[in-house]
From TrEMBL:
EC number: 3.6.5.2
Protein family per UniProt: Belongs to the small GTPase superfamily. Rab family.
Catalysed reactions, as listed in the record: GTP + H2O = GDP + phosphate + H(+)
GO MF terms, alphabetically ordered: G protein activity; GTP binding; metal ion binding
GO CC terms of this entry: cilium; endosome membrane; perinuclear region of cytoplasm; plasma membrane
Role summary: The small GTPases Rab are key regulators of intracellular membrane trafficking, from the formation of transport vesicles to their fusion with membranes. Rabs cycle between an inactive GDP-bound form and an active GTP-bound form that is able to recruit to membranes different sets of downstream effectors directly responsible for vesicle formation, movement, tethering and fusion. RAB15 may act in concert with RAB3A in regulating aspects of synaptic vesicle membrane flow within the nerve terminal.
Xref: Gene3D superfamilies: P-loop containing nucleotide triphosphate hydrolases
Protein name: Ras-related protein Rab-15
Membrane topology label: Lipid-anchor
InterPro entries: P-loop_NTPase, Small_GTP-bd, Small_GTPase, Small_GTPase_Rab
């Protein structure tokens, strides 16, 4: 659990770190079910880890809830001399999948706070949109119900007898 502040709102986030290794895959998939935001992380000094991102994306598509927010991360940005994946390659892949992209370093702290704040922001945004959608739908339905009642109502004071909705 960690608390971060986004747009002046304190948000408590729960972070799950899944294992990348194949033998933990069955457990890893269980993590997806309740996820609202996901970092897809590769290592800029490993072309192989970059190639694996597609597999992770398809797993997320299959097991994570619809509307989950995703960000692509190229980690170990401090390892410039060992770099195998260009920044542009990362940016390109993120663009293909419609994700934001950051290069980070857990060693120098580069973009760690920024990427967590951004993912939280995206999750909040998605949540608000969903709520607004529900609210609009509910008020539309209410308006429709009122209209129908109005139309179906016989004239006279007898019609006001049923006012309780419970
Ligand atoms: N130079 C550098 N090394 C890092 C960075 N982040 C992690 N490492 C190192 O990379 C190695 C692997 O890190 P882990 O955190 O175990 O990687 P992981 O992806 O969680 O691995 P699994 O849990 O096995 O899937 C460790 O030796 C870390 O110290 C970074 O930003 N820069
Ligand atoms: Mg790990």
């Amino acid at each position: 659990m960690k608390t971060i502040e986004v747009d002046g709102i304190k948000v408590r986030i729960q972070i799950w770190d899944t294992a990348g290794q194949e033998r933990y895959q069955t457990i890893t998939k269980q993590y997806y079910r309740r996820a609202q935001g996901i970092f897809l992380v590769y290592d800029i000094s490993s072309e192989r880890s970059y190639q694996h991102i597609m597999k992770w994306v398809s797993d997320v598509d299959e097991y994570a809830p619809e509307g989950v927010q995703k960000i692509l991360i190229g980690n170990k940005a401090d390892e410039e001399q060992k770099r195998q994946v260009g920044r542009e390659q990362g940016r390109q892949l993120a663009k293909e999948y419609g994700m934001d992209f950051y290069e980070t370093s857990a060693c120098t702290n580069l973009n760690i706070k920024e990427s967590f704040t951004r993912l939280t922001e995206l999750v909040l945004q998605a949540h608000r949109k969903e709520l607004d959608g529900l609210r609009t739908r509910a008020s539309n339905e209410l308006a429709l119900a009122e209209l129908e009642e109005e139309e179906g109502k016989p004239e006279g004071p007898a019609s006001s007898s049923k006012t309780c909705w419970c």
